[in-house]
User: What shape does this take?
Amino acid sequence: MSSVDLAPEHHGIRDTELDEISLHRRLAETWRTRPGLIGFLSSVDHKVIAKRYLITAFVFLCLAGLAAVVMRIQLSGPERGLIGPDLYNQIFTMHGATMMFLFAVPMVQAVGLYLVPLMVGTRNIAFPRLAAFSYWIYLSGGLFLWVSFALNTGPDVGWFAYVPLSGPEFSPGKRADTWAQMITYTEVSSLAVAVATIVTVFKQRAPGMSLDRIPLFVWAMLVTSFVVIFAMPAVMIASTFLILDRLVGTHIFNPAEGGDALLFQHLFWFFGHPEVYIIFLPATGMVSAIIPTFARRPVFGYLALVLSLIAVGILSFGLWVHHMFATGLPKLGASFFTASSMLIAIPNGIQIFCWLGTLWEGGRPRLNTPLLFVFGFFFTFVAGGLTGVMLASVPLDLQVHDTYFVVAHFHYVLIGGSVFPLLGATYYWFPKLTGRMMSERLGRWHFWLALIGFNAAFFPMHIVGLWGMPRRVYTYPVELGWGGINLFISAGAVVFFLSFVLFVINLVWSATKGDVAGENPWDAGTLEWATSSPPPSYNFARIPVVTHQEPLWAEREVLPVAGGLRVDAREVLISTIAEAKPDIREKSARPSIWPLFAALTVGATFLYSIFTPWAVVWGALPITISLVGWFWPKGAPEDEE
Amino acid sequence: MRQHTVVDLSHLATFGSGPRSPTWWGTLGFIALEGTGFALAAGAYLYLAYIAPGWPLSAPPPNHWPGTIVTILLLASVVPNHMLNGYAKKYEMLPVRIGLLVMCAFGIAPLVVRWFEFPALNIYWDTNAYGSMLWVLLGLHTTHLLTDVGDTIVLTVLMFTRHGYAGRRFGDVEDNVFYWDFVVLAWLPLYVLIYWMPRF
Amino acid sequence: MRRGLGWIAALSGSILAGCNGVQSALDPKGPAADELANLIWLFTVLCAVIWVLVMAVLVTIMLRRRQRRIHPLHVDQASERTVSRVVISAVAATGIVLVALTLLSFFANRTLAGVGEDAVLTIRLTGQQWWWEVKYENAEPSKILTTANEIHIPAGEQVRLVLQSDDVIHSFWVPSLHGKLDLIPGVVNSLTLKADKPGVYRGQCAEFCGLQHAHMAMLVIAQPRADFDAWYADQLRDAAQPLTEEQSTGRDLFLDRPCVMCHRIQGTTAGGTTGPDLTHVASRRTLAAGTLQMSRGSLAAWIADPQSIKWGAKMPVMNLTGDELNAIVAYLENLK
Assistant: This one.
């Protein structure tokens, strides 16, 4: 018997054999997304998929933002009758579920999907078809939720969907099923992107990008992806248990038959608190990318920042009970969670101090819009972090839990801590995505309008919460005297909303009329700026070789690169985990329509399962067929080595 | 920016197995997230058992024999599984094909016995929370088993075609071996929880 | 300009109203809320100081005159070490503040747990969609009292509240007396309530509980001991007998119609328990869990069409004629 049963290796055409022009031509031919509808639907280019994600998540942000405006109009005065309780409950559920599951998480993951391969110097994300599949899953999950809402079956049980309110007895009809299935389904997409991101960072870094040279944004996405992997299964388990209770009559959450209502809360918040950090950690990565560029020096305390990211990721799993202080858990246990919640403020504090140290030691900062939004981030996030410390205290929390104080707190943390950095990141990386700069003038207006509108809308909520106004009420009586302040809040909310209108105008205007950016308009130091703007489908004609934490600052004249990859087949460089030494010339998957079919069959199964549990059985065959189609080799060079 | 080639990659291998390969890490990622799911489901079971006045709730303990047979089958399958791994590492086509056929059989056999496990639980899913959790745990693992057996069958068919003579296919076989170990390992705590916890 | 002034006036007016509000955590009227309000102020001041410090650093960075750096990788090691020391000190200071806050919070928690060892009264509060059933427990069955949406307590004395729910999760919250505690099906929670002085303290459900979560309020009415005892004795009596022809017709109609399926009126055959006990309904200050002020008009409006006032409430529309409605209202209005 022969000891090796392998087909002979193809030599192919190597980049070392070609001149510049034919190199670009061959690579473009190999890596392109095919024209036409089928080509469009088959794309596996991480940049194409990420842009779809970004646009879709932005549309969901606008929809959820509109939902917020409707709520604010309803609450602008006492006993207003713009919308009744039924619609209000659906709208606040849609607002929360959309913002958390369809905007925030997909948005930060999409930024990662676009930037991580560029920042680590590779040609595509690991498992590109999985990334394509994730997008289709995400899109169909989001459409499913909003179409259900349009058909008056939008969930009305809150984004947290506590049992027994969301259980079979108190939520008849299909609304809570919509919530449960949408959650399970869209989390599949987050999990898949997380796995792809981790493997890209572990195995596809450019030669020389050892662990201590990984850009902080990439570190942040790596830690976030680990948090996703260990947190998201909890909410999937919770929503699956819920749908089983609702559809086939299990009693997991039914106290009358040995189940328990608080079990749902434990599972939900075991996911729910890390969720906040899934949204926040990538934003810290963006801040860590923007600050050094504008301070014109490497970040201060790189190691401390990396360790803080890891510490936050780990500690985020030890805080979930602080969402449940009012449930009457034993006092000693509750105090433990006070301590752990206080503890997480330390790594977050370290991050803030290191950024301030970077700015302090840097030159006079250029006050461009990205940096303005970073300052906006400091202004609001520090306040939100401090109110978070207040909420960590068990007794204090009992007064402010489930009031507008908490609404104020988490909007300071999520908008201040994540949306402001995201907006800054948009101004910062827009030139890379489109090749054009965004308008600074409009950007400044946008920033000030957003900062003022945000604070006008959310700061007074702290006060009205302490005055006793609970969350999730569709109206409030005149005699409690909350009318004036709520009117003020609503006015602030409208200003904040208008700032986004300005943002959209800036995006549209700049995409066509903005100044041409060039490769590296900010003179930044990381690898995504070492290729054209927008980058070609293959990202880099030759894989850069990294010699420093800020490679483009270390090599200002000539970029060292690696040669020898095939150009007639999709080849990426696989390197070792710690030192990023070149190891394998791995093939990267070609475009395929099958991920779309797989998403459609999985989606149809989930949708159908709301009506009958047998859907899982009927759906098995089409899902199997589409998965076999996905993985079956088609004879391309990428499949055969 | 001008470029200067300082590293030559042309001599590198075009595939690798184990931790060298991205697929191995991807498999590990999915094992981690599915393992978390199993752990949380098991945690939910223990939580309900802890707050219940007695366990099992108003039902006789399950008949453990079908479950025990499945456990023995799964444990026995580890031996051919690792023999298969050894052949895959050496890229030997014939033993790999035979090994995959054996593993298909070792996948289908516990599924057949699994069919008898559900009635042996001695309770329905809609009787009470105890019954619900037993069915959920068993159902979760059955889904797991079913998908991996499906995966093994497809891979077996693939290895009997011309596409099998590629290094990455042997890597796929190794990843399949790796994942099957996880299927076996995930079952052991569930077996104890389902069949033995209600007895003590 | 004038509109602007009006705005400011409205705003400051409402700030004052809030501080003196009957439902404000910043206007404590009992020992528990006192402790919590102090804690809130302490945390707020500390947090504000920290925030101002961070902002001061940021502003200094922006205002300082410094050269723009030409070589981004050129780093001055000496000043780098200084910044290191500052950052490490800041982290250490953060740690100390956090430990202090944790201890403060722990001791406040212990104080709160400590009060209420010797409660004079036990009240079982059951959350319902969307009202509160209030049951005063007593060893003697004849002295057990059931009412709704209004908790009378003797001022200056400790009362034990046992919280439970038969449907979904609700949360008991009367900010000027006590922090929140949930009412969870399958769980029994309890807390100790004490109002220092007589007064009316408003609270409302703080856990989202469905359609009318917004209209699930209750009043805690603290009275001097003598008044409380008198009220209690009064409430234990059977319902008042009809005094007029109309009231008597109203009673007959009430007992004849589906009203009795849900409501109880002690001393009559009405014995339903799914809705609030109406034995002394007219003695209560509000109707429909704080939705309406109690009055003849409110009663009539509520009975005529509860769904237009509190959409989704479990009380159906009864389709009464005008005369029937008037009679029932007359009867209920007499149930003081």
User: Anything to note?
Assistant: Chain C touches chain A through 95 residues (CB under 8 Å). Chain C has three domains: 24-58+84-113, 121-236, 245-333. Residues 77-114 of chain C form the longest helix (38 residues). Chain C is about 40% helix and 20% strand.
